[in-house]
Amino acid sequence: MEPCRQVPVAFTINGRAVSLEVAADETALHVIRDRLLLKGTKEGCGIGECGACTIVVDGKAVNACLMLAAQLQGRNIMTVEGLIEKHELSVLQKAFLEDHAVQCGFCTPGMLMSSCALLKDKPRPDKGDIVDAISGNLCRCTGYQQVVGAIQDAARRLFGEKA
Amino acid sequence: MNMKEIKKIGRNWLRRDAAEKLRGNPVFCADLTLENPLTLKVLRSTHAHARIKRIDVDRASRTQGIARIFTAADIPGKNLAGIINKDHPLLVPDKVRHVGDAIALVAAETETAAERALQAIQVTYEDLPVIRDPEEALKEDAPRIHETGNLLFTRKIKRGEVERAFDDCAVVVEKTYRTSFLEHAYLEPDAGAGYVAADGTLVIYASTQNPHYDHGEVASLLGVAHEKVRIIQAATGGGFGSKLDLNTQGFIGLALYYLGRPVRYVYSREESFLATAKRHPLTITIKTGTDSQGRLMAMRARILCDTGAYGSYGIAVASRAAVHATGPYEVPNVDIEALCVYTNNPFAGAMRGFGAPQAAFAFESQMDLLAGELGISPLEMRRQNALREGSFTGTGQKLTASVGIRDCLNAVKPFYERVMEKWRHDPAPTFKKRGVGLGAMWYGIGNTGLQNPSTAQIEMDPEGSVTLYTGCADIGQGSTTVLSQIAGEMLGLSPGAIRAVVADTKYTTDAGATSASRQTYISGNAVKDAAGKLVEILLTEASNLLKRPKESLIVDSGLIRDKNDPEKTVPVTDIVRRAHEKGLSLKCQGSFDPVTEPLDPETGQGVPYATYAFACHLAQVTVDVLTGEVEVNRIVAAHDVGKAINPAGVIGQIYGGVAMGIGFGLMERYVPGRTVSLNDYDIPTCKDMPDIVPIVVESAEPTGPYGAKGVGEPALIPTAPAVLNAISDALGERIYTLPANLERVLEAAVAAGVFPGSHGVKQPA
Amino acid sequence: MMRPKATYVRPGTLTEAVDLLQDLDDRCKLLAGGTDVATELRSGAIRGRCLVDLSALPELKGIHEAEEELVIGSGVTLSEIASSAGVARGAPALAKAAAVFGSRQIRNMATIGGNICRASPAGDTLPPLYVQDAELELTSSSKTRRVSIRDFIQGPGRIDLKAGEILKCIRLKKAADFTMHRFDKIGNRKALAVSIVNLAGLVALSPDGIIQRIRLAWGSVAPTVVRSSRVEAFLTGKPLRMETLDQAYPLVQDAISPIDDARASAAYRRRVAVGLLFRLTTQQESPDSIMDIA
């Protein structure tokens, strides 16, 4: 085992197996956007302070800008492109649409990924859970209210009324 | 039109652009795929004020992967931009005026190559004295930042006999209020991309609020004909005023002009912080007097706006701050002067509200101070002074309709009375103080005392499909949806069935800037005008065919029918065919320009705006006297928008405005030279948000489309004043400088004597 | 000019890792969650280093709860700490600190070992570790040693980690015999915030309200976390009341040495350091419900 400049990595992203070589200091965000050309994941700050690059790694929301590409090895990644179900918007995406949770839309993919991870972990979240789950996702347009509403709605539609 | 027939207006329509954003489609500039693009980067000044003695790009040009390095000498046209006054070079020729000024543009094969080249460019500076304080800049012997001097603009508003009125006042309060530089912090950092089309046109995609302004400016910088440049607004991830300036567009144009290869320029967040406009910090000294009953009699204000290195929208900010300084109240005697001054700070430009949010902090604090002196409730103080139909404003404008401030105050009243009765006086948790505050505002829709028209086209094709052409940039606020609703209402079509061609200078005409909360009102009217002309043609033809009077015909869902005889119909497509056969054009041009009168340069008298939005917020806060933490528990936000075309969109604007208002009131502050990125500039997170009760008040504006005015900026303006008044109510001590951050709130708590223990009064050694 | 390029290596076991470190010179940079390293790479603070990724080491994972002791692997994430029943029992203040750390996304990656080794004066996990006198287990190819957190952290960004060493785990004596476990953090906003002042406090109260034992640790008020034996001794045996805490004001002021920075002034930090002490007399807050507000 030797330190290398180019690191081979293999992982799955949105159900697809990928193997490629990444630079030692390359971020996961760079690989996703510029190598795999999945442009849904956004760069808003590059330092983990805005959440626009949130992806789901092994079921957990993380900032793709704070993750080294080399750390993708063996992981199961989901980006916003992976939410689509048979070319249709998923229940979560439809809830965002119908509850007016999208304004400029730049934070939206990150918001979706944070809420997707939340709903997998906790199908019947209370408002506090939702607020906590998206408080690492900055939004400058919506004031968050309709986003929280959309996530509550999606949870209801997916898993029924809160027990 | 009978109100019952209105079906598309006042209903929640889904945002037209939301689905593709939810899918993560590549709609933003940074997402666009270009053939073998060059990457652009700018070398920016590290000195705040200096002559440039020499720029040496030789070594940098020879570094690997560099296509070309540009300096001011390479700019073929006029190297000055600016929407109001042209003082901002794309690349500085001889002198830098703030840290971040653009000196050289690098076009490189890769990001890394561009960065290497930036490091290799050598600039020799000769430092000049740096002016950070606008008061200093005004001194006679102050070094000149621009050759024209440091005072960019003065707006005076004089009405009545202020001195005499103050003599007669029973209560007079005079205070000075200060605000900070703010960063817009839209989520999408500025970005642009471009290529040269086969016919030689420079095609530029931009994250922008004003594509037609960009168009003229790029053509002027390059010295080329307008037809040689095409600006296409890409999806724009928020703007809030900063994307009204030329950010990446000029650099992209310059590189395309010389290199002909596709280029892209995506600002890092750090560059976006360093190089784009900020909100003007204002110093407002304001003296307000009332009679013994609490009627406002006189106001004098001196407003100092620090516009930093360049004008940008500074003149508009100073003008608007002056016009709005009275608040939504009748003040018969006013003497207001607003100065807009250059310094070597980052340049300040438009930011949601153009000086009105800063002014509202001052005038709404004054209202509470006066109410306190007079012993009347803050709500009554506002109610009895609020503008009404027939009132004259400080500029001598007589308001004739849609003056909804009283309706807003009345909407908030039951909430206010309930919380004052119970919540405010119920025991708060230990070491916490509760407070309730009001913030009211008015906001003139559109540019101040200037023409600001919008145009639009509606076209019906032979199949009866409708296309809306608008130059109006939707930056996330939802204007495309609103304009489609208006067109749909006129043409009896679902808004979703209308094809929209938006903000592309090749296919659309100028709709003016997406700023000043003007698009629903002004572009909405332009679209309505265009659609109305199309309807007129269709109904004229149908009237001939159906042998029915035109007045009894309506267009609805692809049919033209007689209101009084539902059997009598003809498909729109039949009419369209007839029209085409007759050679009639079914592409109709609409326009609207609100009626204003320029403000007199000496007295400020005139009609700055055709209509005004009004609002009042109620804030409930809990202040922790141990730490200065402020929990905003609830905001009740009543907004007179004239008519909510898309209520969910209006409410979304209110929620977002409240969030930005909380940031402005409590936490946001951009410190030149110190604030670098989002780790040292805090905007509210979801956890910082209160419960929000939005109340939509509809005091219809006769000249508005279906009565609509605007809401984008008004949403933000009352929150900070309401929160500050609530903090003052909680502590019994007022804060005069924004933001009311932890430190200032705790200082106020100490000054008020509510910090517990025996050490509350004196600062520890 | 050629800049040295970064390299990367991810050992699979602790033995592999320490063997590797023995061979590498001091140009290597250890990373666990990677959240700090990624920002340092972006800012250019680190370039051309060998990035040694410890995230695959099973030996750094897991929280082990024994009778009297809690052993937390240095590679445990802050999310895992915040949701661990064992930590909630044995180190509730640490659980609270982990729960308010950064954001959900950061907590899912960032590790407690990384937060300790960063040695930021504002590090949120540090004061809870100080009040429980955490011991750190450091291991290298030649030996394993234990050091108290107070000795390990020497200053901002300065730690007693010798070349070739890895922080393996954190050992805490369970704080079950305390009646109050507090962690309070003051930041400019409620999430994604850096602590301007924080305070971890453990108090054992007698049934009549007398402080039998107390441990206090302040963050962000000095180059390293502050524990003051004088303050703790002064308060011991006295009733937990405002009057008592008020008397400790000068002692707290002596113990801390805050600075002015971009986030707050020293004067603010001085006052809030005591403000948070006063807060010990209150119940941990629960926010008003909507019903209460209306």
Would you write up a description of this structure?
The complex is a heterotrimer of chains A (163), B (765) and C (294). With 163 residues, chain A is an alpha+beta fold. Chain A is 33% helix and 17% strand. Chain A folds into 2 domains: 6-81, Roll (Ubiquitin-like (UB roll)); 84-159, Orthogonal Bundle (DNA polymerase, domain 1), CATH 1.10.150. Chain A has helices spanning 28-35, 91-98, 108-121, 127-134, 145-159, and strands at residues 6-13, 16-23, 54-57, 60-63, 76-78. In chain A, strands 2-1-5-3-4 form a 5-stranded mixed sheet, with helices on one face. In chain A, helix 2 crosses helix 5 and helix 3 (108-121) packs across helix 4 (127-134). Chain B is of the alpha+beta class and 765 residues long. Chain B has 3 domains: 3-8 and 453-592, Aldehyde Oxidoreductase, domain 4 (2-Layer Sandwich), CATH 3.30.365.10; 32-129 and 185-275, Alpha-Beta Complex (Aldehyde Oxidoreductase, domain 3); 278-447 and 601-751, 2-Layer Sandwich (Aldehyde Oxidoreductase, domain 4). Helices cover 28% and strands 25% of the residues of chain B. In chain B, strands 3-5-1-12-9-10-11 form a 7-stranded mixed sheet, with helices on both faces. Chain C has 3 domains: 7-53, 2-Layer Sandwich (Uridine Diphospho-n-acetylenolpyruvylglucosamine Reductase, domain 2), CATH 3.30.43; 58-173, Uridine Diphospho-n-acetylenolpyruvylglucosamine Reductase, domain 3, CATH 3.30.465; 180-281, Enolase-like, domain 1 (2-Layer Sandwich). Chain C contains 14 helices and 13 strands. Chains in contact: A-B, A-C, B-C. At the A-B interface, helix 2, helix 3, helix 4 and helix 5 of A face helix 1 and helix 16 of B.
